[in-house]
Design goal:
two-stranded antiparallel ribbon, alpha/beta
Length: 246
């Protein structure tokens, strides 16, 4: 995707139940959100903006030389937050591809952003995301590890049929761990945020099911690594150790 048509948005909500003030958590002398912003910049796919409800987060990004935009503090999801940010900073719709990078992925490898964008290239694809084959047997039954069920759509790419917290599909063969990084056609993001939460989305607590239930196509690029998502103090310590070794 041409860089001039792509924008990377990083939603960063300050309030978190399990790890308060998570975006500002110190990792190697810098806030976590700055590490995520740097990884997105290193991908070199287009403009990068942090969308936040916190003046402190905005100040941290600006201090690092980045760009941040304030959004409302009552958004139900990161998708809603990035859509508000997009409407504010690109009102003329110059950018027609939007990448949503979660603000709690400080170990994200920039190449994964490029891989996700490549999976969006087909005209018929509305949304692209990532997954990695599950290697740890315990993850196969862990409801916190979201699985994607799909059918082959090309080398290293699945067309998503379903996302679930259950162990699926049944039988012999690989299971895939979904990675919550998304690339959207802008028109698809607009369509998505205009939909009401769907029955399966509410049941599984997985927002991406709203798109599938509305017959949107999601393609999934298979990658070889899962970036560490920071949700707990233990995750934060693991991220600190990982980045200290880098």
């Amino acid at each position: 995707m041409p860089a001039q048509s792509t924008i990377v948005l990083i939603p960063a909500r300050l309030k978190a139940t399990r790890l308060p003030d998570k975006p500002l958590a110190d990792i190697g002398g810098e806030p976590m959100i700055v590490h995520v912003w740097r990884r997105a910049m290193e991908a070199e796919v287009g403009r990068v903006v942090v969308a936040t409800d916190s003046e402190d987060v905005r100040a941290a990004i600006r201090k690092a030389g980045g760009e941040a935009v304030m959004t409302r503090d009552d958004h139900a999801s990161g998708s809603d937050r990035i859509f508000e940010a997009l409407s504010r900073i690109d009102p003329d719709a110059d950018r027609d591809v939007v990448v949503n990078v979660q603000g709690d992925l400080p170990t994200l490898e920039p190449r994964l952003i490029r891989t996700c964008l490549a999976a969006l290239a087909k005209r018929e694809v509305h949304i692209a995301t990532l997954a990695a084959e599950i290697r740890d047997p315990e993850e196969r039954t862990n409801p916190n590890v979201v699985k994607v069920v799909g059918t082959a759509a090309g080398p290293g790419v699945l067309r998503a049929l379903y996302f679930t917290r259950a162990t699926a599909p049944w039988g012999d063969g690989p299971l895939y761990h979904h990675i919550g990084l998304y690339a959207y056609k802008r028109s698809a993001l607009e369509r998505f945020v205009g939909l009401k939460p769907s029955p399966l989305e509410l049941r599984e607590r997985l927002e991406q099911l709203r798109a599938l239930e509305d017959n949107m196509r999601i393609d999934v690029a298979i990658v070889d690594t899962v970036p560490l998502g920071v949700d707990t103090p233990e995750d934060l310590e693991r991220a600190r150790r990982a980045l200290a070794r880098a």
